[in-house]
Design brief:
Strand content: under 5%
Largest sheet: 3 strands, mixed
Organism: Actinidia chinensis var. chinensis
Oligomer: single chain
Number of helices: 20
Distance between the termini: 117 Å
Helix content: 40-55%
Protein name: UPF0481 protein
Pfam families: DUF247 (PF03140)
Keywords: Membrane, Transmembrane, Transmembrane helix
Strand order of the largest sheet: 3-5-4
C-alpha cells in the first residue's frame, strides 16, 4: 500500500506476519500448559524418563531412553529383515507439515530432525505397547521389561498432556509395522497398555466402531474411552435435564451431620454417583502415586478441549473436592471403602484432592452432577433432617444408647401416668 507515493511499512510488516501465522486453532491439539495451571504442581506434567514429541526433547534427565528408542527401531528392522529405515522415513516425511500444524507453538527443528523425532518416538511407542501385550516379542534381557518401575513410569509419561505425538503418525507407522488400515488393533493395543493406570474401569466404546480420525493423541484416546456409563445409555435429552447451574455441596463431615449416608458401590464406573432419600452411593477411588498426575493431565486435556460438554473428569474431581476438606473427611471416606488410600497418609490425600482443581476453570452450565448437588443441598437445608441425624448420632448410635433412651421414655410415660392418676383419682 502506498500513501502519497510512499510505501506504508506498517502494512507491509503486518502482511509479512500474516504469512508466518501458525495453523488454524482448530487444527491444534498438542499444547504447552499455561503457567498458572502448571504452577500448582509442575512435576505432575513433567516426564520422568522419556520425552515424546518436541516440548521436552533434549532434556538431560531423559537421555537414557533415547538409546532405547534407537535399539527398538533396530530390533524392529532386524525382525522384518530390512537393512535400513528408508521406507519408514519416506512415510513419515509425507506427514511432517500436517504434524507441525498439530502443535500450538512453532517447532524449532529442521525438517530432518522433525522426521527423525517422529519416527523414533512413534516406533518406540508401538513396539513398547506390542511387547507389553505379547511377552514373546520381548528380547532377552530387555532392560525396560526387567524392572516394573520402568514400565510404570513409561505408562505415566506417555499420557502426559505435553508429551504427545499426533495419533495419525502412529497409525501410519502401524500400517508399515503390522498391517495397513487395521487401526482398531492399534487402539486396542493402546487401551490395553494404559489399563493399569485407570483407578477404576469406565464405559468403553466399541473399538470396532471408533474412527482414528477423531483421536488426537494417546491422552485423547484414554479420555474418549474412559467415560461414565450413562454416556453410552442415556438419551441426550435426559442428560440435558440433569445439567445446569449448581452450588457446592457440604464436605463429608457436614453431610453426615445433615443425616446423609455415604455408601460404597461396586457396580458401574467411577463416575456413576447416585443420591436418593438421604443415601449417596459412590464407587471406590484408589489414590496411588500416579493418581494425581493421571487426573491432572486429563483435566488439562479437558481445559483445552473445544467441547466443554466433555468435562467428565473435571466434573468428577469437583465432586470429590467438595467431599474432602480435611484429613478427617479422608479418614471417614476410607472407613467406608469409598477412598482406597494406598499412600497411607490422610493429610497427603486431602492436600492432593483439595489442590487438584486449583487454577482450573470449573464447569458451569454443563456440570454433570448439578442435579445431584441440587438434591443434596435441598436435603441439607431441611432442619428436620439435621435434627434426626443429631438424635441418631447422639442417642441411637449403639444398642446401649437405644436402651437408655427407651428406658427414659418408659420412665417418663410412667411418671406422666402417675401424675394423671394423682390429679384425677379413681
Amino acid at each position: 500500500m502506498q500513501l502519497n507515493g510512499r510505501v506504508d511499512h506498517v502494512s507491509v510488516s503486518i502482511g509479512e506476519k500474516f504469512a508466518h501465522l501458525l495453523s488454524s486453532p482448530s487444527e491444534r491439539c498438542i499444547f504447552r500448559l499455561h503457567k498458572k495451571l502448571r504452577g500448582v504442581n509442575e512435576k505432575a506434567y513433567e516426564p520422568e524418563i522419556v520425552a515424546i514429541g518436541p516440548y521436552h526433547r533434549g532434556k538431560s534427565n531423559l537421555q537414557m531412553m533415547e538409546e532405547h528408542k534407537l535399539r527398538y527401531l533396530q530390533l524392529l528392522l532386524q525382525r522384518k529383515n530390512e537393512s535400513n529405515a528408508e521406507r519408514y522415513v519416506i512415510a513419515i516425511r509425507s506427514l511432517e507439515q500436517e504434524a507441525r500444524r498439530c502443535y500450538a507453538e512453532p517447532i524449532n527443528l529442521t525438517s530432518n530432525e522433525m522426521v527423525e523425532m517422529m519416527l523414533l518416538d512413534g516406533c518406540f511407542i508401538i513396539e513398547l505397547m506390542r511387547k507389553f501385550k505379547k511377552a514373546c516379542l520381548r528380547e532377552k534381557n530387555d532392560p525396560i521389561y526387567e524392572m516394573d518401575w520402568t514400565v510404570n513410569s513409561l505408562q505415566r509419561d506417555l499420557m502426559l498432556f505435553e508429551n504427545q505425538l499426533p495419533f495419525f503418525v502412529l497409525c501410519k507407522l502401524f500400517d508399515i509395522i503390522k498391517a495397513p488400515n487395521q487401526h482398531n488393533r492399534l487402539i486396542d493395543l493402546a487401551l490395553y497398555f494404559f489399563h493399569d493406570l485407570l483407578p477404576r474401569p469406565g464405559y468403553t466404546k466399541s473399538v470396532e466402531g471408533q474412527s482414528n480420525s477423531k483421536i488426537s493423541h494417546l491422552l485423547g484416546l484414554i479420555h474418549n474411552n474412559w467415560l461414565p456409563s450413562f454416556v453410552g445409555t442415556e438419551p441426550k435429552k435426559d442428560l440435558t435435564k440433569k445439567k445446569g447451574n449448581w452450588h457446592k455441596i457440604p464436605n463429608t463431615t457436614e453431610l453426615r451431620e445433615a443425616g446423609i449416608k455415604l455408601r460404597k458401590v461396586q457396580d458401574g464406573t467411577l463416575f456413576d454417583i447416585k443420591f436418593k432419600k438421604g443415601l449417596m452411593q459412590i464407587p471406590p477411588l484408589s489414590i496411588k502415586d500416579r493418581t494425581e498426575s493421571f487426573f491432572r493431565n486429563l483435566i488439562a486435556y479437558e481445559q483445552y478441549c473445544p467441547d466443554n460438554q466433555l468435562s467428565y473428569i473435571t466434573d468428577y474431581m469437583t465432586f470429590v473436592n467438595c467431599l474432602v476438606d480435611s484429613p478427617k473427611d479422608v479418614a471417614m471416606l476410607s472407613r467406608r471403602g469409598i477412598i482406597d488410600n494406598c499412600l497411607g497418609d490422610d493429610e497427603v490425600v486431602s492436600t492432593i484432592l483439595n489442590r487438584i482443581s486449583d487454577a482450573v476453570t470449573r464447569p458451569s452450565n454443563h456440570f454433570q452432577y448439578a442435579y445431584i448437588f441440587k438434591k443434596v443441598n435441598v436435603h441439607c437445608s431441611r432442619r428436620r433432617n439435621r435434627w434426626m441425624a443429631k438424635l441418631k448420632r447422639n442417642y441411637l448410635n449403639s444398642p446401649w444408647a437405644l436402651i437408655s433412651v427407651l428406658a427414659a421414655l418408659v420412665l417418663l410415660l410412667l411418671t406422666f401416668t402417675q401424675t394423671i392418676f394423682t390429679v384425677f383419682p379413681g
